[in-house]
TrEMBL record:
Gene Ontology biological-process annotations: D-glucose import; dehydroascorbic acid transport
Parts of the chain that traverse the membrane: 77-100, 112-131, 137-159, 171-195, 287-310, 322-343, 350-370, 376-396, 417-440, 446-465
PROSITE patterns: MFS, SUGAR_TRANSPORT_1, SUGAR_TRANSPORT_2
InterPro entries for the chain: GLUT, MFS_dom, MFS_sugar_transport-like, MFS_trans_sf, Sugar/inositol_transpt, Sugar_transporter_CS
UniProt keyword terms in alphabetical order: Membrane, Sugar transport, Transmembrane, Transmembrane helix, Transport
CDD domains, per database record: MFS_GLUT_Class1 (cd17431)
Keyword set includes Heme: no
Topology class, membrane: Multi-pass membrane protein
Organism the protein comes from: Cottoperca gobio
Location in or out of the cell: Membrane
Name this protein carries in UniProt: Solute carrier family 2, facilitated glucose transporter member 2
Residue ranges of domain Major facilitator superfamily (MFS) profile in the record: 14-471
Name of the gene encoding the protein in the UniProt record: slc2a2
């Protein structure tokens, strides 16, 4: 069995190819921030609040008094806000379809099918200047959000099902690594002297569809998930072939035996729908943990940091805050790599607790730094260091782990529904933060991060009390942790049947 633990070339290819979807998700998250002023100018021009002549003048002169009029114009503000927010709305809607798409034609063909959306979105945004830019960009962002909602569920599902147990955490973390790499790429090529300028911004936005083109060529080379082939389709020989391709020459009998037991249980019980998963008392604790993990990721304030970092760096006297923000992006990527290295050694629970606790202290330090900056000039270094620490702690645990721990907490039956619900929770909280943060910021000013510190403390306590360690455990062992102290389940025959299904399922 030892050779079955090897990392083969095919497994590396499959993981790399699938995470191109995550790279695209990260790029789409980050790309909209840098060229905001340039795009607003074109929106204003298209809406008739900014004349062609003024555009030419502003290109030649250093003074741009009229541009502020455009930025403050209610129509421009509304369309710009919609361009940013529609991405999350698309993701919220499509995250419910992850299970359906994943089971329709399989994980690999599912990812292949949804690439049509990414290419269409890239073309809409890339050709924005050929018609009304605000309508083209908003349409493109909506379609791209819809694509990213699907890919943010399909990628962790596929990787979770093909990864050997010993490497499940490290390979699962690569989804987040690809996201932060995408954000970093978008920040760098969004600089005004690269693509974030008058001439190139449609190309900058349109490039978000490029990874999908590359992925479409590579996906046919990737083996289908053996768990999907065996458990959903009942094709044992195909599953055996897929296991050999992924793990090299080894005896796949133990893996197939485990899938056979899981399939038997899945066949006895009807498929777990999203609604029945919400109602089921047997899965309630797992679902609560899965949703809280995703809420802790989005409500930690990390999006606020990306939104606010340029402003904090400006206040701290950094002459080029955009480069400091890129520095945050680099740290983001580096510490996600640290998480990839540590997650199967230190464990999911430990890294999440260290991450959330560290973020809580960083948020407090950031508030102190921002409040005392005017009195003590050295406090600006405190607030800057706090930002870097905050991001580092986020990527060690709370960033990558929620994406793949959901697949570990649930067996094959409820897994697609659980991933869909967790994804929707993630996108919805992302949307809420995106829409409300500017208002919260104007209300609380420097104290805004105290709010996040309180939330982080709450999440840390919850995870300490409720989240079990899933490192290297089979699904049976993970389920057993949730069943402790729930003896009364056996009194209800329906729950007892559900519990039996849990007990005989194995490694997620």
């Amino acid at each position: 069995m030892e050779s079955g633990k090897q990392l083969t070339g095919t497994l590396a290819l499959a993981v790399f190819t699938s995470t191109l979807g995550s790279l695209q998700y990260g790029y789409s998250l980050g790309v909209i921030n840098a060229p905001q002023k340039v795009i607003e100018k074109y929106y204003g021009q298209s809406l008739g609040v900014w004349s062609e002549r003024a555009t030419v003048l502003s290109g030649n002169s250093t003074e741009e008094p009229d541009l502020s009029v455009v930025e403050r114009h209610p129509a421009v503000v509304m369309y710009w806000s919609l361009s940013v927010a529609i991405f999350s709305i698309g993701g919220m809607l499509s995250s419910f379809l992850v299970g359906f798409v994943g089971d329709l034609r399989g994980r690999v063909k599912g990812m292949l099918m949804v690439n049509v959306l990414a290419v269409a979105a890239g073309l809409l945004m890339g050709l924005a200047r050929m018609w009304k830019p605000h309508i083209m960009v908003i349409s493109g962002r909506a379609v791209m959000g819809f694509y990213c909602g699907l890919t943010s569920g399909l990628v962790p599902m596929y990787i979770g099902e093909i990864a050997p147990k010993a490497y499940r955490g490290a390979l699962g973390t690569l989804h987040q690594l690809a996201i932060v790499t995408g954000i970093l790429i978008s920040q760098v090529i969004g600089l005004d002297f690269v693509f974030g300028n008058d001439d190139m911004w449609p190309l900058l936005l349109g490039l978000s569809g490029a990874p999908a083109v590359l992925q479409s060529f590579m996906l046919p080379l990737c083996p289908e998930s053996p768990r999907y082939l065996y458990i959903v389709l009942g094709k044992e020989q195909e599953a055996r072939k897929s296991l050999h391709r992924l793990k090299g020459e080894y005896d796949p009998t133990p893996d197939l035996e485990e899938m056979r037991r899981e399939k038997e249980e899945a066949d006895k019980e009807p498929r777990v729908s999203i609604l029945s998963l919400i109602r089921s008392s047997v899965y309630r604790q797992q679902l609560c943990v899965a949703l809280m993990m995703h809420l802790s990721q989005q409500l930690s304030g990390i999006n606020a940091i990306f939104y606010y970092s340029t402003d904090i760096f400006t206040r701290a006297g950094v002459s080029q805050p955009v480069y400091a923000t890129i520095g945050v992006g680099v740290i983001n990527t580096v510490f996600t790599m640290v998480s990839v290295a540590l997650v199967d050694k230190a464990g999911r629970r430990t890294l999440t607790l260290i991450g959330l606790g560290g973020m809580c202290f960083s948020a407090i330090a950031m508030t102190v730094g921002l409040k005392l900056q005017s009195e003590y000039s050295w406090m600006s270094y405190v607030s800057m260091s706090s930002i870097f620490l905050f991001v580092s702690f986020f990527e060690i645990g709370p960033g990558p782990i929620p994406w793949f721990i959901v697949a570990e907490l649930f067996s094959q039956g409820p897994r697609p529904a659980a991933i869909a619900l967790a994804g929707c929770c993630n996108w919805t909280s992302n949307f809420i933060i995106g829409m409300t943060f500017p208002y919260i910021q104007s209300l609380l000013d420097s104290y805004v991060f105290i709010l996040f510190a309180v939330l982080l403390l709450g999440f840390t306590v919850f995870i300490y009390l409720r989240v079990p360690e899933t490192k290297g455990k089979t699904f049976e062992e993970i389920a057993a942790v949730f069943q402790k102290g729930r003896k009364k389940l056996a009194q209800d025959p329906k729950d007892a049947t559900e519990l039996q299904q849990l007990k005989t399922s194995t490694d997620a």
